[in-house]
Amino acid sequence: MYHCGMRQMEERHVANQVDLMVWSNRLDLLAISNFKGEVQVHRLHWQKVWNLPPPKENVTVSCMAWRPDGKALAVGYSSGSVYIIDIEDKDVLDKYDLEHEISEDFEGPKNIGITCITWAVRAGTLESATEYSLYEDTTMFLQKPSSFTAFNTSYKNQGGEDSVKSLKEIQEPKHLTMLLVGYGSGCIFMSIFGRYPYGTVQLAQVTRDEGGDYKILDISLSDDFSVMQVVYIDRVTKNVLLSLVNTSVLSAYAEEIFVVANKHGQITQMLSYLDQTMTSITEAWEHILLEMDTKMAYYAASVPEGGVSADLLELLMLGVPSDELELFLLQELTAKGLKKFGNSVELSYSTIQKLVLRQLNIVGQHLTYYLSELRGLTRIPDRYKTLGVEESTVTGAIRACCSFLNKCLELQQVIDASMRNYKAFFRWLFVVIVRLLDEQTPSDIVKINQQELSHIAEFLYNFDNVQVESNDSVPEKPVKFNLERLGQYLQDQDLSILPDDEDNPWHKFLRDNSCIMKDTDTIFCMAEFKKYSLVQQHKYLKNAVYQIFDVTHKDVGKNFSLLYNIKCYENKSETTIENNIRVSQLFDAAQQRFMMAFLNLNDKHEVCFMSTNLKERTCSATASKYHFLPNLLKESKDKSTSGENVAVLDIQFYSSDYLSVLIEHPHNVESSIFVQVPLKIAVENSCDFNIKSKSYIFSDKMQNKNMSSLLEYDVYKFLDKMDGFRIAVSGGRKVAVVLSKSFRKVRVFEMEVDGDEDEDETLDITPQSHNRSSNSHCMSEQQNITTDETFE
Fold first, then answer.
1. In whole angstroms, how far apart are CA 22 and each of 31, 70, 779?
2. CATH 2.130.10.10, the chain: domain bounds
3. What CATH architecture does domain 2-135+177-247+560-783 belong to?
4. Which of 20, 125, 173, 266 is the most exposed place for a label (fewest CB within 10 A)?
C-alpha cells in the first residue's frame, strides 16, 4: 500500500494568468494555457520546455489533451481550430479548422469554437500492429527512406538532412488511438491517431433531436471503443444531459481502421517530403539564376520586344554585336562574371537534376505503391466500405501520381537539353567577349561545330519570354526575362514552351490505338497534363490524394446509434450554467463502467456522481449527490449534519480508484483543502435508477449525502495559504497541481509519497489531523504504473 502523502515540489508565481492545466500520463510534463492564448509545457520542477503563441490575435485556448504516448499535444482554440503540436520542437503536426463546417446550418454565424477534446486509446495491441506480413513489407520493392541522401551544396533547405530526419522519426503506432473533438453546436470530430480524419458526428442526429443546439462538455470512450459517453448542455433548456452512444462499428472494424490510418500516414508523409523537395528545387533555381536573370532583364528592357533574341542571333550569324549588346557584354557581364555564372548554372542544374532523379522519383514511386495498396483494400467492401474510401478516387490519385512521375521524366529531359545548350551558349559568348577585348583565345575553345551552332540557335530563339496564347488582354507589367525552358516548370502556370513529343513512339501508338484506353485504369493518355508545369502537377497530385480522405460529406452518424439519453440535471436558476459546469469522466476498464462527476459552480455545495455499468447486455446505472460539512477536519468523528455545506471548487478523476476534489476551507479563506475521495465509497453509497427514466436524475428528490461522514480523515490535505480555484491531477504519474483564485500562483505536488520520508517537506495540515496524516494509507498498488519513460 502507498501512503497518501502529498509532497510539495514547487510553488510559482507566473507572469500571465493561467487558464487550463493538463498533465501528461506518460511523461512528467504539464501543459498550461494562459489568458493570452499561449500554451506552455513545463517539467515537474517547473522548468519550461517551450512556449507556443496563439495562431492569431484575440484567440484563446479552449481545451487541451495529450496524445496517449505523450509525444504530442492537441490544442483547441476559440477560433474553432485544433492544432496537434509535437512535444519535441512544438512543430504543428496537423491542423483542423472545424468551426466553418457548422456556420451555414444555423441562423447566422456562431463563433462557438472548440468545447472539449479527448484522446482515447484502445486497449490491447491489434494483430496488424504486431505480426509481420510478407505482403506489407515494402522494403522488398521500394528503396528505404535512408536512401534519400542529402546533397552537399551551398543552397539552403535542400530537403536532404531535414527530410531524412522527419522520415526516421515517424514510427507506426502500436495501439489504436482516437482524437475526439467537441465543437460548434453538438458536433464531434473524430480522427484516428489525430492524423487520419474519420468524420464528424452530429450528436443531435444520434439523439434524434433534429436541430438540437448542444454544447458538448466531455466525451469518453470505452476501452474497446464500443460505447461512447457524452455529457452535454442543451443550449435551449440550459439542462445537462448524458448520452450513451453505440459505437460498436469502431470496435468491430478496429483492424481495418488501423490499417487504413497507417496507409494514410505513409501517404501524407510522402506528400510532406514532396513539398520539402519541391521547395528545395525552387529555391536552388531562384538563388543561382537571380543575378543573371536580373541583368538580362535589364538588357531586355533597353531594347524593343524580342530584341534580345534578335541581337544575339545577329551576333551569331554576322559575328558583329550591336552597340547596346557590346556595351552589355563588356561592362555588365564581363568574361570573369560569365565564367562564374557558367559554373553556378551548371551546379544549379546538376543539383536540381539530382533532387528530381533521386528524390522526387523515389517518393513518387512510394506514393504509387501505397496508393495501389489502398486501392486493393477498397476492393474488399465487406471490410473497408465503412471507412468511406472509394476505389474511383484512389484510382484518380494513382493516375495523378503517374502523371507526376511522367512530368519528372519530362523535366529531366529538359534539364539534359538545357545543360547541353547552356554549355554551348556560355562557351560561344565567352569567345565573343574575349575577341571584343582583342585577346588571344585557345583554339579548342574557338571551334564550334554545326551541331553546337544549331543548339545555340535553338536556345536563342526561345530566349525572350513567351506568353501563353490567350484572347484576354495582358495588362502592362515589368519585363520578366525567361532565361530558358527549365524555369517555366517551376512556376504555378501553364508551360509556355511545350515539349515536342510528336515523334514519341508511345504517343504514336496510343493515337493509332485509342481503343485500348477504354475501360482501363492502367493505360491512359497524358495529353490532358501536357501544359502542366511541375508545380501544377504537384498541386494536382496533392488535391487528388486529398479527395481520397475528404470526409466533409461522409455520414458517420449513420453507423452510430443511441443506447440511452439520460436527463441529468435541470437548471432551475436564471443564471447561465453553460460556462460554469466542471465535468470529469473516466472509464474503469477493470469494472467495465463509466464514471462521471460534475459540479455546477453556481451551486458549489454538491457534487453529482454517476456510474454506468456496461457488463450486462442492458446497461445499469447508479447516481448520488454528495456534499462536505465543516466538521470534516475535527479530531472526533462528529456524526451531526449541522452547519452549512462547504463550497466545492473543482473536481477531477485521479484514477479509477480516486476522485480528487478541491474544497474551500470552512474557516480560513486564504486556504483550501484537497480531498481524495475513494470511488469505492462513492459507488457503494449511490442508488440505482431506471436508466430509461424520462425525469431528471439529480433532482431535489435525490438524497444529498454527507461525504464527510463517509471518509477517513487521512484523505484530507490542508493547503495552507493556497486559496485554490482549479486542480489538475494524474494518477498515472502520481502528480497534482493547484491553481489559486488569482490565476497567478500554482503549487505542484507529488502524490502517494511515503509519510516517513522527507517529513519536513510534507505539506502542512491542520493541527488536529497532523499525527494521523503521517501514517496515512490510501492509494492502491493498482496505480503503480511503470515510470521508466523519461522526456529527454
1. 5, 12, 21
2. 2-135+177-247+560-783
3. 7 Propeller (2.130)
4. 125
